[in-house]
Amino acid sequence: MTDYIVCIPSYKRAQVCNEKTLSTLKKMKIPSNKIYVYVANKEEEEEYKKVVDSTLYNKLVVGKKGLVPQRQFIMEQWPEGKHIVFFDDDVASIDLKMSKFKSKSLDYFFKDAFSECKKQGSYIWGVYPVFNPFFRKAREEISNCLNYIVGAFYGIINRPNLKAIQLTLTKENGQKEDVERTIKYFIEDGIVIRFNRVGFVTKYYGKEGGLGTFEARLKPMLEASQKLKKEFPEYGEISTKKNGMTEFRLKKILARTGGNEEVVSKKSKTNKKPKKSKTNKKPKKSKTNKKQSKSDKNKSVKKR
After folding, report:
1. What are the backbone angles phi and psi of residue 153, rounded to the nearest 5°?
2. What residues pair up with 61 in beta bridges, in sequence order?
3. How far, in Å, CA of 51 to CA of 15, rounded?
4. What is the pLDDT of residues 206-236, one digit of tens each?
5. Residues near 144 by beta carbon (within 8 Å), at least 6 away in sequence
6. Please, are residues 256 and 263 in contact by the beta-carbon 8 Å criterion?
7. 282 in a domain, yes or no?
8. How many structural domains does the chain have?
9. Are 93 and 22 in contact (CB under 8 A)?
10. For residue range 160-169, what is the model confidence (pLDDT) as tens digits?
């Protein structure tokens, strides 16, 4: 089994970080020497030192302001291949009871998740994005197609210098940053792993800190969704809920396995085999051959 570290970006929520994610990890017996809390500046560092129980983490690190720059900063602090578990600072509980890990520890789950990634050739894993047990129960245990990897709780095998997976569209305000990450990892690797029966409790739209209040995030959410649609039109569609929240819903595209191109991606577009020219076609000898040629052509069109 493989080892890991836990990294928690936090902004203006020292008390929340202390009472939620750090306390949750302690309750679930994750060793504090594996846990690193990242803050935006020196002022924040001083506040967190006053408020947060220092026995709950290994080190408090001053990084960068902004969720996307902070995550990139974290990745650049650790070597290639490092196993990193990312958490938001307000995770109140984690539920393994509906999964195959129900009799295992959270530590075991983390290690097994990275092992599953290595087995399937994925560099990212995630969990079901909502706690609702009814939804989770109906899902397959593990999926590797294009599924949304929520940013509040996920793990990566670190590749700090790989430009292809660095976030650009959502860097400014952080809205939909996890959607952009999901798509870019899927394009690069052809696979993302999600444990659909593992759930957690968090509050996505807090009153302060983090990415801001729900109301303050409505316009940036729309703008981010529009950028994603423009850049990745074949990967999802924009939808708007009754409360005004905009989503970029990902299409369920199959993983690429065994070297087969089973997904429409920027890679697959460039890797398609060229069409045979008419001059290279064999002469049609019979009606049977003509039908067969037409059938093959139809199959080729469907494949594309």
Report:
1. -165, 105
2. 38
3. 6
4. 545 444 566 777 888 999 999 999 999 999 9
5. 120, 122, 191, 192, 193, 194, 255, 257
6. yes
7. no
8. 1
9. no
10. 999 999 999 9
Q: Is residue 138 part of a domain?
A: yes
- On whether the CB atoms of residues 231 and 207 are closer than 8 A, the answer is no
Q: Dihedrals φ, ψ of 50, to 5°?
A: -75, -35
Structure tokens, 104: 């295992």
For residue 92, count other CB atoms closer than 10 A to its CB: 15
Residue 199 domain flag: yes
d(CA 144, CA 159): 20
Structural domain includes residue 64: yes
Beta strands in the chain, from DSSP E residues, in sequence order: 5-9, 35-39, 59-62, 83-87, 93-95, 124-127, 142-143, 153-157, 193-195, 199-201, 236-240, 246-250
From CA 21, how far away is CA 60, in angstroms rounded? Answer: 14
Global pTM value: 0.81
Q: Is 250 left (phi over 0), alpha (psi -120 to 50) or beta?
A: beta
* Count of other CB atoms within 10 angstroms of residue 238: 13
Beta carbons within 8 Å of 161's beta carbon, 6+ residues apart: 80
Helix (H, G, I), strand (E, B) or coil at 81: coil
Tell me, what CATH number does 147's domain have?
3.90.550.10
Length of the chain counted residue by residue: 304
**Which single residue is written with the structure tokens 């590797």?**
144
* Two tokens, residue 267: 């890679």
Q: Which residues, including other chains, have CB under 8 Å from residue 201's CB and lie 6 or more apart?
A: 91, 92, 93, 94, 95, 131
Q: Do the beta carbons of residue 295 and residue 289 sit within 8 Å? A: no
Contact in structure between 11 and 44 (CB atoms under 8 Å): yes
Residues in the chain with pLDDT values less than 70: 1, 204-214, 258-304
Domain containing residue 57: 5-211
